Amino acid sequence: MIRLLKILEFALSSLARRKFKNFSIIVVYSFTIAVLASVLLLTHSLKKMAMDVLVDGPDIVVQRLLGGRHELIPTDYSGIIEKIPGVGRVQPRVWGYYYDSLNHTNYTMLGIGEERQRFVMVDGKAPADDDQCMIGQGVAGAQHAETGMDLLLIDGKGIGYSCEISGVFKAASDLWTNDLVLFTSDALRRFFAMPDGLATDITVEVFNAREVPQVAQKIKRLLPDTRPITIDEILHTYESIFNWRSGLMLTIFTSSLIAFSILAWDKATGISGEEKQEIGILKAIGWDTGDVLTLKLCEGMVISVTAFLVGVSMAYVHVFLLDAPLFVPVLKGWSVLFPRFHLVPYIDAYQIIVLGFLTILPYMASTVLPSWKAAITDPENAMRGV
Amino acid sequence: MRRTNCFLCFITLLLLLSVSLVGHSHYEKRLWHQKELPEARQLVHRLGLTDFALWTEARYTRNPALADFFAPFQDFPAAFEHFPSGSIITPAMPTVDTRFRLRASTVNSPR
Amino acid sequence: MAGTIQVERISKYYNRNRPDEVRALSEVDLTIAAGEALAVNGASGCGKTTLLGLVGCMSRPTSGSVLLDGRDVSRLPERFLGDIRRRTFGFIFQQLNLIKSISVLENTLLPLYPGKLSMKEMKIRAERILARFDLTARAGVKVSRLSGGEQQRVAIARALIHQPQVIIADEPTAHLDSVLAAELLDILEELNREGKTVLIATHDPFVSNHPLINRVIRMRDGRIVD
């Protein structure tokens, strides 16, 4: 133990001798780890939040497909679905998208049914009649609108349509409601000029969660032109969007890994003549191979453990305390309305450990392995000044 | 052992920082589970939401869970992706389950 | 007294069984008594350094054995050899082999890092030995800023810090002027009087003729000639 501490002391003094070089390595290395860890934390948190919240979405969404594309679905279908045993409420929905050419933004228009009770996470009220609407924070921001003001839109027939804003979703729900404009279903059908007897899709409630796949199968059998999407499939989508193979991960991960390999490669190939000579001297004055390797291991460990801890902490602060400002432009793409979200700090210990192994071990190896060759030579070489 | 002590202190500080961050995450998670999550779930349930409102530029980016299989490819399977978010999200691939179901339905179709 | 070295029929080949095979030593026998001061004389390339390396456990003989106080050390595994080397021998190299970018004190401490002494004990020893060689005032100075003579003294201080029984010096005067060479030999003589075994390889007659030396052996082509 005392030997290890003494060698650590010597390792620290050798590192301190090349202050500038080692400090720059720590900075670059921490930054690389911070970027990698940020991606992991961000995607994991988004995934967990999706899993947490979207579980309470509709059990089955039934779409109609025509030529492989989504089509309006006849509302009569709900009668057929309702008869399947175990099925609860079946609701044809009216919803769609709207392009606001003034602000160059897309809104998601959603019709709500007859229930006109108070909503949670809303400042104001739900639309009580056909001349009222409720909007998300993003829409309110784009339109500079607030509760009580009028929202001006152009309807499906090209005629201006004005409705009173009865409520605005609270910022805490941004991740789900940012671009929403809520009308009553009747008002929205008229707005879209959607023919009667048709709806966008149908949501199906299933009493027993374990029967969802069977019900979906029955719907598919009874109505072959439909595509039932179960809640499991919806969650699966979000699981796969944010997995490691998705584009965000791949682009950032590969580029930082490449940067990191360049750093490691540079170290691995470039053990300097000075370092080689030092190892020779140490061997000559009585250090054995094990001592020299312990020294190099200590040097590598000091740098990589410091960089790892600093990097992961930086990533945590970046993603969860500062709300990932560096990644928002990447995530945002061409979205004009992008929610300001605050992520819940879900941390996957497994991911962090894997990240640790993937970054600390290669660095240690790239410090120790090149020294190995210098360390196993006979100390006699040092005597000859080789 | 001056340097060793400095270093060990520094690492201990970093570890304490990490531990306090883990503590912070537990605190925030609890807050989320107690306060916001129940409301958010209620809202999602009431509105029948299926997706995050993250990417608003196209149907399949706004509602990836509901997008049809071909949506990311638009009209032609080899068409270049138009939107940057298309590179972030993967197209919703049919699950094994779905494929099985589709095949089963052609066999047992009532028609 | 400990420190008797017996060399029995040792040979050393480099690049064994290859076209560029070199026979550096062949069948050398030598006994060095404890407390003796021995000079190994000969032209360069005659095997002096190889002999010193083998005696000092820096490399292994191709055949034959090296006995240290009656114990065969030539077949021991590396980690024991390192330990023996550290405890028994102090080396003074032709090229000093100091790490130039660290201080005098740190250079002197180098051999003690892998050992069992605490950092405090190490410092006490180093201070004592630096005082002996008039280096106390220079302890914190980087080696690269020292004069040649001072560097030489640091190298000796480092060789002696772990209180070795045997001092091995390879061409110690090669880079020194006559004044410094005399100073070095005086120091070695003093150490020899304290009972340490001294083994010097040299082709400098000034060294071989110094009153310090009890015995001179001559080497040619890897053999002892007289």
SS content category of chain A: alpha+beta
The largest contact between protein chains, plus residue counts on each side, is:
A-B, 94 and 70 residues
Low-confidence stretches of chain A: none
Q: What is the tally of beta strands of chain B?
A: 0
Q: Count of helical segments of chain B?
A: 4
Number of separate domains of chain A: 2
| Overall pLDDT score of chain B | 75
Shape assignment of chain B: elongated
**Rounded radius of gyration of chain B (Å):** 24 Å
- Contiguous helical run count of chain A: 14
User: Based on DSSP secondary structure assignment, what is the total number of beta strands of chain A?
Assistant: 14
Q: Give the class of chain B from helix and strand content and strand pairing.
A: mainly alpha
Description:
The complex is a heterotrimer of chains A (386), B (111) and C (226). Chain A has 386 residues and is of the alpha+beta class. Chain A has 2 domains: 2-53 and 242-383, no CATH class; 59-229, no CATH class. Chain A contains 14 helices and 14 strands. Chain A has helices at residues 2-17, 19-54, 77-82, 137-143, 174-177, 185-192, 212-222, 231-241, 247-269, 273-284, 289-321, 328-332, 349-375, 380-383; strands at 60-66, 69-71, 73-74, 87-93, 95-100, 105-112, 122-124, 132-135, 150-154, 160-169, 180-184, 198-199, 201-206, 226-230. In chain A, strands 5, 6, 7, 8, 9, 10 and 11 form a 7-stranded mixed β-sheet that branches. In chain A, strands 1, 2, 4, 13 and 14 form a 5-stranded antiparallel β-sheet that branches. A two-stranded antiparallel sheet of chain A has the order 3-12. In chain A, a hairpin with a 2-residue loop joins strand 1 and strand 2 (69-71). By secondary structure, chain B is mainly α. Chain B has 2 domains: 1-48; 59-103, no CATH class. Chain B is 60% helix and 0% strand. Chain B contains 4 helices and no strands. Chain C has 226 residues and is α/β, with parallel strands linked by helices. Chain C has helices spanning 48-55, 78-88, 104-109, 119-132, 148-160, 178-193, 205-208; strands at 5-14, 22-32, 37-41, 63-68, 71-72, 89-92, 166-170, 197-202, 215-220, 223-224. In chain C, strand 9 and strand 10 form a beta hairpin. The model of chain C has no long low-confidence stretch (mean pLDDT 87). Chains in contact: A-B, A-C. Chain A binds chain C through residues 2-3, 6-7, 9-10, 13, 17, 278, 280-282, 284-291, 378-380, 382-385, and chain C through 49-50, 52-53, 58-59, 78-79, 81-83, 85-86, 89, 91, 93-95, 97-99, 101-102, 106, 110-116, 118-119, 122, 158-159, 162, 170.
